[in-house]
């Protein structure tokens, strides 16, 4: 149902504020549910399903990669057909179903292999084909859920702010920080309380809790249905991109006029939600798509009769926005590999370190819970940066955000290099103590437990969290603001596609290192028993790749031109494109 502009403006301004409790509640419970399931997944596969560490690591990497790559399809369906509300509703139900499947694999004995004996030489049965099929079916539902939730969640929350008011624009700027803060809070709970229950009490109960939290997330989401505001999908934004490329190729032999900004075709549809972009000289070849030749005809409303032969400057500039983002995006791929290591091999380091709370204590911190220190570092830094450092920098630089998003990314990349160097030094110390001093026992199916306190892993985790606070949040903001408004779900998927490639790259790197450094069946850099391996060498290798990546990023950042608008309001969205959502069912 169409409504007038004034009514929609007021609804968007105040309805967005009313919607925030439901949005934040949904996001918090969703993150608690999905992270509570996935954060300890590596340990679950090695202990309950008896997988070797390298196989489990690769499966987790492929699973995470597929979840993240699926966001492209989710974003396409969202921006083209479904809209964010319906996409999030379907995806939330799918995530709940997938988590229910995983819970059943732990709760029903026939759905997982029999437990191994306690003896070091005990035989562990491998999972049957049926058990693996049921497990992978749960993964499939989780992939569908992640593919819809990840690209749409952030954009849907930002849609609730009125972009035509100063408070709304400032709210969007802070929203990116606080969205990630909510994510971090959920991660901390997942990596402490839920992981402890999974590792020390019961896997069935530990997986049932996040499943129930995901159910609450669905409830919170649908209860707020009548309050939400959303931007209606306009059809596939990819079609316009392809049309520009086709038209430019067809007119490749034509010459651009001397003053192209004044003579090229530039019809802007009044129905478009995109802000009007100024003419730029970058990628001049694409400008040929807007040359108005004698063969070109226009409709009565001024639009091109054949959009595959004639495109407006506005369309061309939207394509340039997307093309300009690609080099910056590729510069982040190697960076994500650092984060992958903090989620995989750090767990194995913790397993072969002294995880006692203090000397003489019987309580051991679960290996997967150490990642909470990365989240803690990020959670502490975000409010300090947002409320203290940004206002201070704003006075110096005269920029609303204090520093540019690319500067924030660069700082995070430098910290990532330090993270891997510290990780390598700590691993060298852990292995040396394990080899030169009495061990604290044997970690089943691995090796001796080093007497080095696992607390030595905290500095590298703190650095990783600080790096995320700069780079990841900056990338979220960068993609959201630099993409055309009708492609913001695609913008959200870009970050996760980077994560996906990083998971695949990490898996490939691990496989190559595992094979090329093998000296025997049990000894290589990434041996099952870390005391027989050279994990620190692997960390140095990743650090070297990070240094090269940082150099590439500097070149891309120097070349990049930020998206500009004629109104100088990047987040402008015509209010006649907003309307209250209708129920999914």
UniProtKB/TrEMBL annotation:
Pfam families named in the record: PTR2
Give its localization. Membrane
Q: Which residues cross the membrane?
A: 88-109, 129-149, 178-197, 203-223, 333-351, 363-384, 405-426, 461-480, 492-517, 537-557
Keyword Iron among record annotations: no
Report the domain of life of the source organism.
Eukaryota
Q: Is rRNA processing one of the keywords?
A: no
Q: What is its main location?
A: membrane
> By its UniProt entry, which CDD domains does this protein fall under?
MFS_NPF1_2
As given in the record, the signal peptide range reads: none
Question: Which keywords does UniProt give here?
Answer: Membrane, Transmembrane, Transmembrane helix
Membrane topology type: Multi-pass membrane protein
Q: Which family, according to UniProt?
A: Belongs to the major facilitator superfamily. Proton-dependent oligopeptide transporter (POT/PTR) (TC 2.A.17) family. Belongs to the major facilitator superfamily. Phosphate:H(+) symporter (TC 2.A.1.9) family.
Q: What is this protein called?
A: Protein NRT1/ PTR FAMILY 2.11-like isoform X1
Provenance organism: Solanum pennellii
């Amino acid at each position: 149902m169409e409504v007038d502009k004034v009514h929609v403006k007021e609804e968007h301004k105040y309805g967005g504020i009313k919607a925030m409790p439901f949005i934040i509640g949904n996001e918090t419970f969703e993150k608690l549910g999905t992270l509570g399931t996935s954060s300890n997944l590596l340990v679950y596969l090695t202990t309950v399903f008896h997988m070797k560490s390298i196989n489990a690591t690769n499966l987790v990497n492929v699973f995470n990669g597929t979840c993240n790559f699926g966001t492209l399809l989710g974003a396409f369906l969202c921006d083209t057909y479904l809209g964010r509300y319906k996409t999030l509703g379907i995806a939330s139900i799918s995530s709940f179903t997938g988590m229910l499947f995983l819970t059943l694999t732990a709760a029903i004995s026939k759905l997982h292999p029999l437990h191994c004996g306690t003896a070091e030489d005990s035989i562990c049965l491998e999972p049957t084909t049926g058990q693996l099929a049921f497990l992978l079916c749960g993964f499939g539902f989780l992939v569908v859920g992640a593919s819809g939730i990840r690209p749409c969640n952030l954009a849907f929350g930002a849609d609730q702010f009125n972009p035509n008011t100063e408070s709304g624009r400032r709210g969007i700027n802070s929203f990116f920080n606080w969205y990630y803060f909510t994510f971090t809070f959920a991660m901390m709970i997942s990596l402490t309380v839920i992981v402890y229950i999974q590792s020390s009490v019961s896997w069935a109960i530990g997986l049932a809790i996040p499943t129930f939290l995901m159910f609450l997330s669905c409830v919170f989401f649908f209860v707020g249905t009548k309050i939400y505001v959303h931007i209606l999908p306009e059809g596939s934004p990819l079609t316009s991109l392809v049309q520009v490329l086709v038209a430019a190729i067809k007119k490749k032999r034509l010459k651009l006029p001397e003053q192209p900004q004044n003579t090229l075709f530039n019809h802007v549809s009044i129905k478009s939600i995109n802000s009007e972009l100024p003419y730029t000289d970058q990628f001049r070849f694409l400008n040929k798509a807007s040359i108005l030749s004698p063969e070109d005809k226009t409709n009565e409303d001024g639009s091109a009769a054949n959009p595959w032969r004639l495109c407006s400057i506005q369309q061309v500039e939207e394509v340039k926005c997307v093309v300009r983002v690609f080099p910056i995006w590729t510069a982040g791929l190697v960076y994500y590999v650092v984060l992958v290591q903090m989620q995989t091999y750090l767990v194995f380091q913790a397993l072969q370190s002294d995880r006692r709370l203090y000397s003489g204590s019987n309580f051991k911190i679960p290996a997967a819970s150490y990642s909470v220190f990365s989240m803690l570092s990020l959670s502490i830094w975000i409010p300090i940066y947002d409320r203290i450092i940004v206002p201070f920098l704003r006075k110096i630089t005269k920029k609303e955000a204090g520093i540019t998003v690319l500067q924030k990314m660069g700082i995070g990349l430098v910290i990532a290099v330090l993270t891997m160097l510290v990780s390598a030094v700590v691993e060298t110390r852990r292995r040396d103590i394990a080899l030169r001093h009495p061990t604290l026992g044997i970690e089943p199916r691995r090796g001796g437990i080093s007497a080095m306190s696992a607390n030595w892993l905290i500095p590298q985790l703190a650095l990783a969290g600080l790096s995320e606070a700069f780079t990841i949040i900056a990338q979220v903001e960068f993609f959201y603001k630099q993409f055309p408004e009708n492609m913001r779900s695609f913008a959200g998927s870009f970050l996760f596609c980077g994560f996906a490639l990083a998971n695949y790259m990490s898996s490939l790197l691990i496989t190559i290192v595992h094979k090329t450094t093998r000296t025997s069946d049990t000894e290589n850099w990434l041996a099952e028993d870390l005391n027989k391996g050279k994990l620190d060498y692997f960390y140095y290798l990743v650090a070297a790749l990070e240094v090269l990546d940082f150099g590439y990023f500097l070149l891309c950042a120097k070349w990049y031109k930020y998206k500009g608008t004629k109104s100088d309001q990047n987040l402008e969205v015509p209010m006649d494109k907003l309307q209250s959502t209708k129920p999914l069912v």
